[in-house]
Each structure stands twice: as C-alpha cells, then as structure tokens.
C-alpha cells in the first residue's frame, strides 16, 4: 500500500479506483455529491408512482459526458425496492410501467410501430447473475418467421420481432458484436434491443432496478471487460439497451460499509479522528483505492450477488419480457402483460 507517514500518496493515479457502476443514476449521484448547483450538460427529472421511482436523465453534450462518464443520450431508470418481496401484483405493475416507458422511448427515438426489432439477450446461460439476457429471449414473443412465411395470416397489431442469445466469447470463440453484426446485415432490423446484466455500486439496487438507454451497450463492461460494443456506429441501426444490475464489487461494499461507520461515529462523537484515524475525512475515491489495493493482490475483489439470485433473475426477466411484448405489439394488452410470456 502506498502510505507515507499515515497518509495516502496523493501522487498515485486513482483513475482505476473509481466506483464501478453501469447505472447513469448512480453516476449522477456521485457527480452531484457536495454540489448545490445543477450538473453541467445534464438534465434530469424524477417521479414516484405506486412504489416505483422513475428517473429520466439526459446527457446533452460533451460537458455532460465528462461530468457523468456516460455517452450523450437518454437514460431511464426504474427503481422498485418492493421487488425483493416477490409480490406478483407489484411485478405485474412494474411490467406494465416498463412497457409504457419503453413504448414512449421508442416513440421519442423515432422508431415507428411497423419497425422491425431484433432482441439480443447478452450473457451466459450457465452463470446465474449473467443469465438475464438469455432468460428474456426465452420469454419474448417472436414473430418474424410469420411475417416471412405467412404474412397474409398475421393479425394487425403485431410487428416483426426476432430474438437470439448469442452466448459469450468464452464459449463461442466469437465476439458478440461480430455475431450480432452478421445477423443485422442479413435480417435487416430497424432497431436492435440489447438486454444485459449490469454492475451497481449499491446492493439495494441489485435486481430491483431497470435501466433503459439509447446509447447502445458494451458486453462485459459490468465486470470490467471492455470490448467492441453494440452501438449505432457499429451496427448501423439504433440500439436500445436494457440493463438490470445483478452484481456489486466486494471493494464497493467494503467502501460503503466504511462510509456508514464514519457517519455513524460522527453521530455519537465529534472526536472521530481518534477512532477512525486516516479514514476520517479521506475522499471516497482514495478510500476505495486503498480497499482495492488490499483486496486485489489476494484475489478477493469478488463480484457479489444475493443468495437467492436465481429467483430474482427469473422474476426480473419475466417482467422485462412481458413489458417488451406489450411495448412492441399493440395487440398485446398493456394492462395484462404478464399473460403474454410463455
């Protein structure tokens, strides 16, 4: 550890020690910490409805990109802490709200009701926290084959939808972006919808939060594996990303616990320096850097997920699949979307 006389070495490069999160909402929270003015280049609004908190963030320009570390575009986050209670009635409400938000997202993006959609379920079938994408693909309503083989028998209110779970590089030996690019070139969809598992900086958001973004997606980014992404630039068609955080880094959890200890001691005494030493007043990024320097060499900066992750992932996958079915097909009743998964 780079400590000199009880102080963190200020000359150390801390860029690798930023809190890892794929959520624009959490990036905004970190950027807003300690600020009284609005973030430059960023617009946001929040509403609460029936136990759901919906936050809409818009990164307007390059200044906003520097502020949040997110690409120019629109981000919608739906937070539903009650999903942890496995309430089927609430799950139906979330699916309906997600369907409405996604339909509005398509409309604002200029994607018409007749536009052909390709759904990509990113992730690994065999790793539960990473199986969200394939599980969604398993439950969405695919119709492209009907439009191709018997278009005269397709009822009004449906659009051409295809779906695939291309697997991961470690099992296919092929970059996901290459597989998707080949499918896009042959099937010629008007929009690509990519579903993937994300990483959060807060355990309470794991499996209770859905993010929609029109900036595309980078497979593996949640676990620090940066590769060629699924974006408009690479695929030539708009890409809408849907993500759910399913993991948190151990270093992030430890850092959060230290912060909670600091705040708790400050409520009980003004002499926190005697108890916490150098941790008292240490900037968050420096504290996280110290935690990572302890955990990384012994291989303990683990990806952490809840013990009942299998049920959580299945539930949230059904919510997303149900919402997509209603948002993409007018004939599906948006008030009863759960009836349309199989």
UniProtKB/TrEMBL annotation:
Function: Initiates the rapid degradation of small, acid-soluble proteins during spore germination.
UniProt xrefs under SUPFAM superfamilies: HybD-like
Region (Disordered): 30-50
Enzyme Commission no: 3.4.24.78
Protein's organism: Paenibacillus thermoaerophilus
Record-given protein name: Germination protease
Residue ranges annotated as propeptide in the record: 1-22
Family: Belongs to the peptidase A25 family.
Catalytic activity: Endopeptidase action with P4 Glu or Asp, P1 preferably Glu > Asp, P1' hydrophobic and P2' Ala
Quaternary structure and interacting proteins, as annotated: Homotetramer.
Gene3D superfamilies: HybD-like
Top-rank taxon, per record: Bacteria
Keywords: Hydrolase, Protease, Zymogen
Record's comment on post-translational modification: Autoproteolytically processed. The inactive tetrameric zymogen termed p46 autoprocesses to a smaller form termed p41, which is active only during spore germination.
Recorded GO MF terms: hydrolase activity
tRNA processing listed as a keyword: no
Tagged with keyword Metal-binding: no
């Amino acid at each position: 550890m780079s400590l000199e006389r009880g102080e963190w070495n200020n000359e150390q490069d801390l860029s690798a020690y930023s809190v890892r999160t794929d959520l624009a909402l959490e990036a905004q929270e970190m950027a807003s910490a300690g600020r009284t003015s609005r973030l430059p280049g960023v617009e946001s609004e929040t509403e609460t409805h029936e136990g759901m908190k919906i936050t809409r963030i818009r990164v307007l320009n390059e200044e906003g990109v520097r502020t949040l570390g997110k690409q120019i575009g629109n981000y919608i986050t739906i937070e539903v802490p009650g999903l942890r209670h496995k309430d089927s009635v609430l799950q139906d409400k979330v699916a309906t709200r997600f369907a409405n938000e996604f339909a509005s997202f398509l409309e604002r993006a200029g994607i018409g009701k007749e536009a052909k959609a390709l759904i990509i379920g990113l992730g690994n079938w065999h790793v539960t926290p990473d199986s969200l994408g394939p599980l969604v693909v398993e439950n969405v309503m695919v119709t492209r084959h009907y439009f191709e083989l018997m278009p005269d028998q397709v009822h009004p209110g449906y659009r051409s939808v295809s779906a695939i779970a291309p697997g991961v590089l470690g099992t296919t030996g092929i970059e996901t972006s290459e597989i998707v690019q080949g499918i896009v070139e042959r099937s010629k969809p008007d929009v690509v919808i990519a579903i993937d598992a994300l990483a959060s900086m807060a355990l309470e958001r794991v499996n209770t939060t859905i993010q929609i973004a029109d900036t595309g997606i980078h497979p593996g980014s949640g676990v620090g594996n940066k590769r060629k992404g699924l974006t408009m630039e690479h695929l030539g068609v708009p890409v809408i990303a849907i993500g759910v955080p399913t993991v948190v880094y151990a270093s992030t959890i430890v850092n959060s616990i230290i912060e909670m200890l600091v705040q708790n001691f400050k409520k009980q005494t003004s002499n926190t320096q005697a108890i916490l030493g150098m941790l008292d007043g240490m900037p968050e990024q420096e504290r996280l850097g110290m935690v990572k320097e302890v955990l990384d060499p012994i291989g303990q900066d683990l990806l952490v997920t809840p013990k009942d992750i299998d049920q959580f992932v299945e539930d949230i996958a059904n919510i997303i699949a149900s919402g997509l079915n209603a948002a993409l097909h007018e004939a599906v009743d948006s008030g009863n979307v759960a009836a349309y998964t199989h």
